[in-house]
Every structure is written in structure tokens, then in C-alpha cells.
């Protein structure tokens, strides 16, 4: 069904050709009735076909996105099998990335395997998250400094970062679009009764839980994730929406430089085999400048950007002033009142009335001269 469109001449010829083809087969096949109703703003079709013989006409190709069928009053609607299903919500999950991580879902806790660099990265990223969060609280419990805080770990994988945050006392929700990753994470945390109570895992994408978790978390962590999403701006918007006012967003990722291509992809994946081939796509890497621009446009102020370097020979990470390869960023969501007060609503209404009045007067005066207000 199309709204406000008419059939093109090519479309008419297409239908005409198929009508003539059907006339030649009507003696051998059940009757096919086609009716079309035209209006100025809408074109609707109704095809009446017996379900048992529908397969005879499956080779027909229509350019419409969806069509309605009446099949003996039992089939209300039907979507052609080759038609792509569009969702009203945008997704940040790349299906090709999901396949890559699905194949390695059982290797997350192998400290000598493909995820060895992520295990050793905890030596930097866990204190980075902890220390910056402690700046926002007056006091904390010894041994459980993050007690009382609620953290969302986006793209948690097998829980390599989720568990250390839980051990620091935080209540953590880890989400990942790969179901096998979540199963691995749940199985591993089940061995620790304390973590089993503090950590919850969900197999879903970030945008799927935005509405139910709006302004819920004290911190959102996206470590080694943004270089895998297909829509970075939407991803950052979702991170901002689930954060409480004044909450923290922590990101670790890879800079988009020639050096990151040479070392992060050519050397790490193709030569040394530190990372499985196909793990990264250089076009998805993001520079600190671009990331900061996106963060600030969503009401997040960047507090810290620090370079991270990995030594493949020692297997350890260390901080650096150089951000040309890996880097970590910490941003705060504005704690200002996000919803207008009654006085602000009244001022907005008065401003709108003044704008309408001015627009009306401008229409009376004409456009022949300039008016300075």
C-alpha cells in the first residue's frame, strides 16, 4: 500500500504483462482476481488467491514493501518473504560483529587466549573507573568503595570488567547482544555467591533497555565497544539517556590514525595474531576529538582523556600521554535541571505568542523593508 503515489508507466506495463500471462493459464489454474482502487492520496490493492496454489505464483516480483491479501477470509495479512522488515527504532548492533564474537564466546576467561589483552587491561581501566567515581562521593566503605552505585556495563562480553566492578561493591548490569556471551558470563559469576547477588546479565542491545532504565545508572561503561557499533551518535545518545544527572560515562577505544591501522590491524591481527582477524574495522575507529564533539552535543562534558599503550611482549598496559593508539575517556552528564519549571513553561508560552504576533504583523507589513526588533 502506497500513500500519495501513483503507478508509473513502467509499473502499468509490468501489471499488464502479468495480466496477459495469467489469461493464458486460467484454464489450467484457479481463478486469480485482481482489483485496484485509485484515489488522490492512496492506492490500495486486494489480491484473492487460494492458499493452496499460492506457491505457483511465488516467482512474481512486486516493488511494493507490503501487500494485503484476502484468502478465504482466513489470512488477514501477508508480507512477502523477500521483503526486509524495518524497525521503527534504530539499532547500533552490527550483525557481522555479532558473528565474530559468537565464535569466541567460550574463550572469554582464557587468560592466555584471544582475550588476554582485555584481561590485562583491567589493571588500568578498573582503577580509572573507581577513582573517577570516588570523586563524586563524600565517603565510601573500606573494601567496597563503589557500594550503593549502580553501573551499566555495555557490551560486557563474558563479564571480564563486570565482575571486578561488582567486587568493588557496585550493583552492575551487564548487557551484550550475543546470547552466548551472556551465558558464559552467567556461568562464571555463578561460582561466586557474592557476585551472583550484585551482578545481573541481559542478552540485549543498549537501545532495547533505554526506556525502562532512563536516568537509572550512576555510571555507564563502554570499554572496547564503540569501535564495533554501526551508529556511534545513537549509541552515545542512549548512554546519556540511561545516566542519572551528574552520572559518569567511561569509554575505552582506539584512535583513528595511520598508526592504529598499522599496529591495531596489520600487526595485531594479520602478523602477530594477538587479536583474531576481522575483529576490528579501521573505518569504525574514532578520534578523541570526534568522540568529544559527540559527547558534548549530548550534554556530556569530557573530564579526562588519557592514552593507553599495550606491550605485546610483556602482555601489560600502561598509561601514556600519547593517544594515537588506545585511549580512555571520562565524561559527566550535566546535573542541571532537565525538565522546565512552571515559570519556564510560562516564559516559553509568552515567547511563542510574541513570535506568532510578530509573524502576523510581518505578513501585514509585507517584505519590502527590514524591521529591527
Number of strands: 11
Oligomer: single chain
The helicity comes to 25-40%
Q: Over all CA atoms, what is the radius of gyration? A: 29 Å
Class by alpha and beta content: alpha/beta
The helix count comes to 10
- In the predicted model, the low-confidence regions spanning at least 5 consecutive residues are 1-88, 337-345, 362-373
Order of helices and strands: EHEEHHEHEHHEEHEHHEEEH
| Alpha carbon gap, first and last residue | 49 Å
Mean pLDDT, to the nearest integer, reads 75
Biggest sheet, spatial arrangement of strands: 6-5-4-7-8-11-9-10
- Approximately how much beta-strand content do the residues carry? 15-25%
Q: Give me the CATH architecture of the domain at 95-333, please.
A: 3-Layer(aba) Sandwich
| Main beta sheet strand tally, sense and closure | 8 strands, mixed
CATH topology of the domain at 95-333: Rossmann fold
Global shape: globular
Mind telling me the CATH class of the domain at 95-333? Alpha Beta
The CATH superfamily name of the domain at 95-333 is Vaccinia Virus protein VP39
Family: Belongs to the class I-like SAM-binding methyltransferase superfamily. UbiG/COQ3 family.
Pathway: Cofactor biosynthesis; ubiquinone biosynthesis
EC number: 2.1.1.64, 2.1.1.-, 2.1.1.114
InterPro entries: SAM-dependent_MTases_sf, UbiG_MeTrfase
Task: State the main characteristics.
ubiquinone biosynthesis, acetylation, alpha/beta, 33% helix, 10 helices, globular, 373 residues, Rossmann fold, transferase, 3-stranded antiparallel β-sheet
Amino acid at each position: 500500500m502506497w500513500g500519495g503515489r501513483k503507478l508509473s508507466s513502467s509499473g502499468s506495463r509490468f501489471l499488464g504483462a502479468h495480466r496477459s500471462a495469467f489469461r493464458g493459464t486460467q484454464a489450467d489454474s484457479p481463478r486469480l482476481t485482481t482489483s485496484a482502487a485509485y484515489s488522490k492520496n492512496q492506492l490500495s490493492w486486494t489480491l484473492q488467491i487460494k492458499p493452496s496454489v499460492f506457491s505457483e505464483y511465488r516467482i512474481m516480483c512486486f516493488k511494493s514493501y507490503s501487500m494485503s491479501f484476502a484468502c478465504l477470509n482466513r489470512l488477514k495479512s501477508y508480507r512477502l518473504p523477500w521483503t526486509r522488515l524495518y524497525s521503527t527504532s534504530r539499532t547500533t548492533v552490527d550483525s557481522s560483529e555479532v558473528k565474530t564474537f559468537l565464535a569466541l564466546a567460550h574463550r572469554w576467561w582464557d587468560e592466555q587466549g584471544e582475550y588476554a589483552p582485555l584481561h590485562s587491561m583491567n589493571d588500568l581501566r578498573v582503577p580509572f573507573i573507581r577513582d573517577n567515581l570516588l570523586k563524586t562521593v563524600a565517603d565510601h566503605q573500606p573494601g567496597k568503595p563503589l557500594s550503593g552505585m549502580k553501573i551499566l556495563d555495555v557490551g560486557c562480553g563474558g563479564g571480564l570488567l563486570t565482575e571486578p566492578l561488582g567486587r568493588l561493591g557496585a550493583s552492575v548490569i551487564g548487557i551484550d547482544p550475543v546470547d552466548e556471551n551472556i551465558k558464559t558470563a552467567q556461568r562464571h559469576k555463578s561460582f561466586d555467591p557474592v557476585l551472583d547477588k550484585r551482578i545481573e546479565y541481559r542478552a540485549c542491545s543498549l537501545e532495547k533497555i533505554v526506556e525502562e532504565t532512563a536516568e537509572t545508572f550512576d555510571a555507564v561503561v563502554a570499554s572496547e565497544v564503540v569501535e564495533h557499533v554501526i551508529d556511534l551518535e545513537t549509541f552515545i545518545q542512549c548512554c546519556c539517556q540511561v545516566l542519572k544527572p551528574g552520572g559518569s560515562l567511561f569509554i575505552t577505544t582506539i584512535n583513528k590514525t595511520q598508526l592504529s591501522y598499522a599496529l591495531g590491524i596489520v600487526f595485531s591481527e594479520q602478523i602477530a595474531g594477538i587479536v583474531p582477524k576481522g575483529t576490528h574495522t579501521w573505518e569504525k575507529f574514532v578520534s578523541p576529538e570526534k568522540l568529544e564533539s559527540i559527547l558534548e552535543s549530548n550534554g556530556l562534558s569530557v573530564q579526562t582523556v588519557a592514552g593507553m599503550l599495550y606491550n605485546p611482549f610483556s602482555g601489560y598496559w600502561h598509561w601514556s600521554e600519547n593517544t594515537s593508539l588506545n585511549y580512555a575517556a571520562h565524561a559527566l552528564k550535566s546535573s542541571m535541571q532537565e525538565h522546565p519549571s512552571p515559570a519556564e513553561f510560562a516564559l516559553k508560552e509568552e515567547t511563542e505568542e510574541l513570535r506568532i504576533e510578530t509573524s502576523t504583523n510581518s505578513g501585514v507589513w509585507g517584505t519590502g523593508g527590514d524591521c529591527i526588533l
